[in-house]
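QA checklist item 7 of 12: single-chain prediction sanity check.
[x] sequence parsed
[x] length recorded as 158
[x] structure emitted
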Amino acid sequence: MPIKECNGLAGRLSIELRDPAGRVVEQRRIDNLITRAGRDLHARPPPGAAQGPELRIAVGSQGGEVQPGDTALGAQLDAAAATIPSVAIGDYEGQPRVIARVVATLPPTGSADPQALQEAGIVVSLPGMEPVLYNRVTFPLVNRAGNLEMTLSWEVIF
């Protein structure tokens, strides 16, 4: 499948909550916004970018409207180290695009109180720089019980 010139970045988040037996108890899929700071990372890679960034996926409790100028989650509650298990050509809205998959798993909290989650984002850290909120998405309330593992899988589309 040949690559066709397409402009713009996009992202899509998949959320899976699994019980202690590994069964999926909830799934969601949501499109997101790439922040201005995230777009800037592509346009002007900073010194140290060649060493590779540290990626984390963070979740928080503040919903509401997402803005291009967002620099942090509204109310971060948890985060986990993320990996990029694949970068490949795939279909996005009928066009072949490069899709990088970014994945993190938050282990069960063990808390008796559920986490009320309504936002997530990828946080990029490079040596000598403040962390950058690459993208942000808000979604209808997810009550994450203390015994549930949460896997967040992001498709970053170039």
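[x] summary fact logged: The mean pLDDT is 89.
[ ] second reviewer sign-off
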